[in-house]
Amino acid sequence: MSENYKNRLIEAYQAQENRTFYAAWPENPKAYAEDANAKGLEAFQKSLAQNFTQLDQEGSNGWVGEEISPYMMQGLGIHYPAFSADTLISKAQSAQQIWSQTSVEKRAEVLVNALDRVSARFFEIAYATMHTTGQSFVMSFQASGPHANDRAMEVLSMGYHELTRFPQAIDWVKNMGKFDLTLKKTYKPIPKGVALVIGCSTFPTWNTVPGLFASLITGNTSIVKPHPKSVLPIAIVVAEMQAALRDAGLPTSVVQLAVDTLESPITKHLAENTAVRLIDYTGGSAFGDYIESLPGKVVFTEKAGVNSVILDSVADAQPVFGNLAFAASLYSGQMCTAPQNIFVPESGIATAAGNLSFDDVVAGISAAVKGLAENPKMGAGTLGAIQNDITAKRVTDVSNSGAQMAAASLHVENAEFPDARTASTVVMVVDQNDTQHWQHECFGPILFVVKTRNSQESLRLAAASAQNLGAITCQCYTTSDAYAQEVEMAMNAVFTPVSFNFTGAAFVNQHAAFSDFHVTGGNPSGNASFTDSQYVNRRFVWVGNRYMA
Amino acid sequence: MSENYKNRLIEAYQAQENRTFYAAWPENPKAYAEDANAKGLEAFQKSLAQNFTQLDQEGSNGWVGEEISPYMMQGLGIHYPAFSADTLISKAQSAQQIWSQTSVEKRAEVLVNALDRVSARFFEIAYATMHTTGQSFVMSFQASGPHANDRAMEVLSMGYHELTRFPQAIDWVKNMGKFDLTLKKTYKPIPKGVALVIGCSTFPTWNTVPGLFASLITGNTSIVKPHPKSVLPIAIVVAEMQAALRDAGLPTSVVQLAVDTLESPITKHLAENTAVRLIDYTGGSAFGDYIESLPGKVVFTEKAGVNSVILDSVADAQPVFGNLAFAASLYSGQMCTAPQNIFVPESGIATAAGNLSFDDVVAGISAAVKGLAENPKMGAGTLGAIQNDITAKRVTDVSNSGAQMAAASLHVENAEFPDARTASTVVMVVDQNDTQHWQHECFGPILFVVKTRNSQESLRLAAASAQNLGAITCQCYTTSDAYAQEVEMAMNAVFTPVSFNFTGAAFVNQHAAFSDFHVTGGNPSGNASFTDSQYVNRRFVWVGNRYMA
pLDDT tens, A47-90? Predict the structure, then answer.
């Protein structure tokens, strides 16, 4: 049990108020015990083709599981207990009173302890993430391990601050002229109710734990509904959370795992139940829009978006092409922050070595993308594997769409996993008027180089795209301060952050906990942000009682 | 111009974090200049039967005005310039860029200055409030003057704090092992867009300025749409705000007044315009539900509610009856915080002097209500006048509803205004099963004493009423600590604050700025609260940009 959890929360809160670099858990696998990797792999392998029995949940109505490793192209054979929506909600409700009356300090302690427990299983979670999402080992480790824990810690520390922001009790003394009127007043943060967290297939813990820990620290019991194809990583997290609750003498049904199948989904049964007052959702826009439309709920969504790159002028083109190729290829573009459309003026771009024509830019980007994919030390590790067949098919469909193809998508051999489903990034070239190609989300390893009239048009198109289709991020390359200011103003006005002139180790894809707000909540890519104060404050209500002194 | 506006904001913010007594403007009219009252009255009288020409708004399409004094039962004859929704929105949009790029410090300074200007017209605003709402002079002065300014200051200080919470720019340095990755990051609070504030007829400034100043401090230009029958008080406020903007060299269309008529309302034209991104609303539930249902808006509502009193046991009954009578009769029950239903067990209530039967309780409450109304020093001043005919008719309808009447509503003579529309509080007695009488909002001077099986039933009914119909507040009288705890827990669970055992100068109606959250936002009485941090934070979006160092 962590004894200094309060100091850790205060330190984490100060970090996010300062927004400078902070990490509660090291992201480097080598910072962990020497045998941790081997043990994690062993634990993962032992869990295959078994029932997952680590959950403390009674009343199952069967066992389900349909995860497939994108590396092995085989089912994992892991089965999880299934529960009816009614069972889950009734248990969540029965735990709600105890949990809501558990002090903020106690809740915080249990939840920090849960994260410590999770950190002891980072390597196992990494392998579970690899073999459900197709992420590379390093990304799996970082995203589902320390980075996810960091985002949870960020939420816990923000929640702890906001929940303890006002005094619990005061004497309110008002001078009425001839006498003082004295009232005792108390202030209580009352949780909203049962929370539902709906996970996605590509980032099963990173996108789930912020909402989950936000609902829990604010006193709401929570049901975690993972994507049926990406269960194991979050199942391990939930099991550790339940263990932390049990250790603290609290009901384990404060957090429950709700596994379903693609054929018999239970998400709508859970979401539409009136007891469910809070919903966190990561996934496609159609279902996200449905979730947002449910009456009587407070909803936090991260949906689809189309991220733009505005290429105006550069000092040196090669590092830019390399950076773009990496950003687009990292985890085969299956990140919500991956760039999709690169807007390039038809006249090309200025560089220190003179003008680079539009065709030269296309050739440069294509060469960088191909070079990365074909580099035996980089390709397989950067691309990882394709999480599902729909994404793989989309690459084919885009390739055959009739637009000009500058770089074909290739199968990239993975020495360790010969059966891995891989696809390098396809680079398509389109005119700005060919909106049917580029003006919608094409999730996966797909890049469009969009030929525009000029840089003003590039900006106009990028801003309109963010406003209408949503955007989580935007990248701009320019050597002009004036143009940079224009881009910043126009993109910020549609609630899209801009990263300028990233090269080297800086990638637009990476949003760091404690420093980068993830999603702004201002455009159609989502209605909420990791982690501003609303992210916790909207999950409870301040109620003040008054007593005659 | 206030030079120390920052210190005043910081002081006001610290007050609300501490939640102890604080007032930025004294509520006692005697604290102001000796001739202020006379000058205010004169200014009010001069404005009668005139065009209101103090607004700095061009492009009017005519003059409208239909205010009627509930004291004189005569039209005020004041006409205001009318504008089309399109004109108002186009001007708001054209001012949006300048205002959003005005620094937070400058915005804060201008808005504090506006409040100072308003304070110089407190007495005129008081008379304007009297003769539109029917409030007594003292309530008009306090509610529309210092108390409204205090709520605006509360919002400004919260906004100033939240907007300056994060650094504007930082260097983010991440050690990558062999080198440091350094990024410059900036954080900008980006306003949502044009704001609309829809006022009500009974509290034309108190219920309008919180949302108005919240939208403005966060950088959103704002359109104020008052109730057609209560324009003058907020028209003066808007005129002073425009003067403060003009003095600062800023466009006066940052805040505009949108006056319409009951016959040709423009509210929906404004609310449904896609440029309007924020809406604050005070008023009836039907229109409030419509406002909440508008897609793509962030909406803050205060709608109808039914406030309960739970009478269980008391030490001394008389002060309790007196307190209840005053709370119900103050401004003839036309407050969103006025009690409506008093739940009393059929066996009566325990007192230090023995049990008081149900009938004795009814008689005691009725006597107190009548005694107050008939007291020549208290009656007219406490009751004020009835704002509109619908409320007056409701009193008659309830009186004739067939339920048992324990105290009839009386016309109370007002020596100063013989034509005043007055009605003392009617007290009706009903059984808990006669829900058709008491289980809906009866706005105005109407009290139901509801006979319940026992105090457990009283609590169950009060909690269900708050959950289903909404409640802004609840009052409980009990000498039992155990029962008090039950009541607090059950009412708080439906997001309703409870005031316990109020007697003397403590009245459930009064919510003090800086200390009492007004409306919780958790039940159907409204979806937002004056003033938690969400009240400002939901009006802008944090956007972080990153630059290669």
Answer: 999 999 999 999 999 999 999 999 999 999 999 999 999 999 99
Q: If you count residue pairs, one on A and one on B, with CB atoms under 8 Å apart, how many are there?
A: 177
pLDDT of residue B549: 82
Which residue does chain A place closest to B521, by CA atoms? Answer: A541
Pairwise CA distance, residues B218 & B102, whole Å: 10
Got the DSSP string for A113-162? HHHHHHHTTHHHHHHHHHHHH---HHHHHHHHTHHHHHHHHHHHHHHHHH
pLDDT of A94 > 70? The answer is yes
Q: What pLDDT score was predicted for residue B1?
A: 41
Distances in whole angstroms, Cα of residue A304 to Cα of each of A139, A224, A473, B194, B240: 21, 21, 12, 26, 45
> Rounded CA gap, A142 and A139, in Å?
5
Q: Are B337 and B473 spatial neighbours (Cβ–Cβ below 8 Å)?
A: yes
Instruction: Tell me the average pLDDT across A174-190.
Output: 96
Q: Say what the pLDDT of residue B3 is.
A: 60
Q: How far apart are CA B131 and CA B126, in angstroms?
A: 9
Contact B253, B221 (CB under 8 A): yes
Buried b (16+ CB within 10 A) or exposed e, A421-449: bbbbbbbbbbebebeebbbebbbbbbbbb
DSSP strands (E only) in B377-419: 404-407
* Nearest-angstrom CA–CA distance, B328 and B337: 9
Q: Which residues of chain A are within 8 Å of residue B494 when distances are taken between CB atoms?
A: none
On average, the pLDDT of chain A sits at 97
Question: If pLDDT is split at 50, 70 and 90, which confidence band does A318 have?
Answer: very high
Secondary structure class of B97 (helix, strand, coil): helix
Cα angle vertex B501, ends B497, B506, to 5°?
80
| CA of A434 vs chain B CAs: smallest distance (Å) | 27
Beta strands in B178-336 (DSSP E): 180-191, 194-198, 222-225, 255-257, 276-282, 298-302, 307-311
CB A244 within 8 Å of CB A111:
yes
Asked if A545 lies within 8 A of B500 by C-beta distance, the reply is yes
Q: Which residues in chain B are contacts of A17 at CB distance < 8 A? A: 165-166
Would you say A285 and A216 are in contact if contact means Cβ atoms under 8 Å apart? Answer: no
Q: Which residues of chain B have pLDDT under 50?
A: 1
CB nearest A544 (choices: B17, B174, B517): B517
Q: Which residue of A has its CA nearest to B100?
A: A493
Looking at the predicted structure, is the pLDDT value of residue A3 above 80? no
Question: Which pair of structure tokens corresponds to residue B404?
Answer: 């048992």
Instruction: Tell me the per-residue pLDDT of B60-81, one tens digit each, with 9 for 90 and over.
Output: 999 999 999 999 999 999 999 9
Measured in angstroms, the CA of A437 and the nearest CA of chain B are apart by 27
Return d(Cα B459, Cα A348) in angstroms, integer.
73
Asked if B422 and B332 touch (Cβ cutoff 8 Å), the reply is yes
- If you average pLDDT over residues A210-225, what whole number do you get? 98
The residues, any chain, with a CB within 8 Å of residue B14's CB and separated by 6 or more, are none
Say yes or no: ipTM exceeds 0.90: yes
In angstroms, the CA A90 to CA B406 distance is 45
Distance from CA of B339 to the nearest CA of A (A): 16
Residue A549 confidence (pLDDT): 82
- Chain A residues with beta carbon closer than 8 angstroms to that of B176: 505
The per-residue pLDDT for range A463-479, each reduced to its tens digit, is 999 999 999 999 999 99
Q: Which positions in chain B touch A543 (Cβ < 8 Å)?
A: 492, 495-497, 517, 520, 522
Per DSSP, the residues of B286-300 read HHHHHHHH-TT-EEE
pLDDT of residue A231: 98
Would you call A545 and B499 a contact, using CB atoms and an 8 Å cutoff?
yes
Which residue type is seen at B217?
Answer: I
